[in-house]
Amino acid sequence: MQTLNAAQKIKKTVAGRIPVDWEAINLGDYLREISVRNSPVNPNLPVLSVTNTQGFVTSESYFDRKVYSKDLSNYKIVHKDQFAYNPSRINVGSIAQLKSFEKGCLSPMYVVFEAQKGLDADYLAYWIQSGRFRNLIDASTQGTVRDSVNFSALAGFPLARPPVDEQKKITTILSCLDDVISKTQAVIEQTKTLKKALIQELFTRGLPGRHKKFKKTKIGEIPEEWDLTTIGKSCENLDNLRKPLSESERNKMSGDVPYWGPTGPIDFIDKHIFDEESEIVLIGEDGDHFMKWKTWPMAFLVRGKCWVNNHAHILRARKGCSNEWLWRYFEHRDIFPYLNISGSRTRLKLNQGALSLIPFPLPDEIEQKKITILIHDLDERLRVEKDFHTSLKKTKSALMQVLLTGEVRVKGV
User: Fold this and answer.
1) Which of 37, 45, 137, 148 is deepest in the core (most CB within 10 A)?
2) Considering the entire predicted model, what is its pTM?
3) Residues 365-372: contacts with CB under 8 Å, at least 24 apart
4) pLDDT tens profile 282-327
5) Of 11, 35, 81, which Cα lies nearest the Cα of 406?
């Protein structure tokens, strides 16, 4: 069993204040640069890239196309547990340890290196994620023309090195936390998939087992009892109430009332157009967000005080249609076919006339309510898991701060 205890005796070093039995080293004393080339070419090796969010990924999955050279003979070989980084992107976090592949190849621009005896590779991987490493990168690139860090510069970074057995204990604790974080992320992704499938079923087939007959419409099959309506028929358009404010005007009106644009609040001011009793649905009028409908919201349900500028359409459902149904149906709906290209020929625009013609299905109000409650419950599950995921990452960050500096020591087996 492992326990955590506050450090007793410390010393001042170039790596900061560390326990007396820890060693302040230069990274280069325990690293070895690797420059093995893919020659003769192994056609079965995946071509990899190092990202600042996902670590190692295949080049084609990251860029959605093949961007690497046809001749891979000069590409560098990287093995599992080795490290690599792009010297010109290390400043944004593009450095990682290879875990998801046994072996791969990288563009010659990458630096590949490995940890030597005395420095646990997994311990080094966690240290690279730390704020201490981030600060060293920032200091190394400050005042330079390019934010680039070569291997010689990296090798000069100071690191607090605990005894190897303590390094392994630290990585065990942090890796256990990483496992929980990964499992929580998997639950989040599964819930997102479930929500997507459920929404598709609910908006085309209705509540499970409720409908037996279906009819064909311009938007596909829907239950026979449902109506097919349009935004113009079932919604009141309140665009005449919106009013744009310049940045200088908003600076004089600082407050806590959201000032809405096409994809969300862009500022907060001290005045409102709609009061605390209001409930409206906003759909963006222009921008490139229409192309991202699978991941970006196309519609927003806004309750309470707010101000809306002239880049978002304002809708309010009429009798027989709820605002929540309108919002949920269009939240991730592809409305690209109804767009116009503005005069600049580059900006997508949903004008008021086209908006009014967009069709959508309309069940009775009781079924609308039950369907939106089901979606709300899934959203609540997602929120809880995301909050837990965020708290886990904060806990990991706090633990890294005290464990990687020796402020708190790991004892036991």
Assistant:
1) 137
2) 0.82
3) 365/320, 365/321, 365/322, 367/206, 367/207, 367/210, 368/321, 368/322, 368/324, 368/325, 369/322, 370/207, 371/202, 371/203, 371/206, 371/207, 371/325, 371/328, 372/322, 372/324, 372/325, 372/328
4) 999 998 899 999 999 999 999 999 999 999 999 999 999 999 999 9
5) 11
